[in-house]
Amino acid sequence: VDQYEVHLEVPDILECGAVAMPIQDKDAEDTKIGYFLQLHVRTLDGQRFVQDIGNAWCIVFRMERRDELHKAARLVLDCIQCGQQREERPGHTSHTSIPFPCLDCLAEFEAASDQQLRQQNRQDRLPHPGPCQKFPELGELQTPLEAQPLRVVLRPVESVSRTLLTHALAECLLDYLPIGLRLPGAVEWVLRYTPKAHGVSMATLFRNLAEHDRTILLVKDTEDNVFGGFAPETWEPCPGRFYGSGEAFVFSFGHTAEVPEVRVYPWCNKNSCFMYSDNDLLAMGGGDGRHALVVRSDLLHGYSSPTETFGNPTLAGSAEFVVRDLEIWAFEEIG
Q: Do residues 308 and 272 lie in contact, with contact meaning Cβ atoms separated by under 8 Å?
């Protein structure tokens, strides 16, 4: 087996993705899932550089297991984020050295797998796989964070027959979440609190969310508008102070009769009023005595206003609203 040594500096990585795709195992007849860490880099030799992702070189590392892939991807992504916060020194040279690029590796993997499957079908006198069995198109496989038909796994409460959050709504929010929550197969979305299953109680709400530092708050008002926010820290009673981080954002899906299309309002860097909660209310956003989203302790009444924190308009159908449905979803690692 040929072995190659790769030296790769973090600033030379433009994009990192986790890819899962069907492959044919040489030692087995069945098709299995292969796990690949895919990087787009701006140089192969530390001398010639490109700056845009469209011209970048693609390199791929195969991982034995899904957990290894997720661990490696998270590590690389964390390093990329840390590197983006540092200024590049004038005259800095790169020591990146990659023996060869993998410009069409995914296309080759797909073609090989498809050919092997056709051969197996001919041997077994089976028809060629129909559309429902066809492997994903190359464009789908090259989407860095899209590895399975459903990128979001929802785990509701058994006693709730129908949840406010659907796969369609969750998919709309996915690309705005922190990168660690977007890796395919890494986490599932778990319904941790809803009055429909857990009763109307702020104490129960805080208790159910005590071990979850990243959650989605989703509200539907009596005018059928759906809106909410992403909370990057644990909801807990903190009277008299805001908390959270710049990962927080609020969003609105508008009226539920419309085709789901999310409008996301991230942090505007004007204040740090991300989250507020006490025994009387939950709130996101602030400034000038206004909040982007407030839900009172009765979990029935709330209000929404434009804020400096997120630069958002009124998220609900009106400044004061009545809650028809409320859910808080947490993210839990799979396996």
A: no
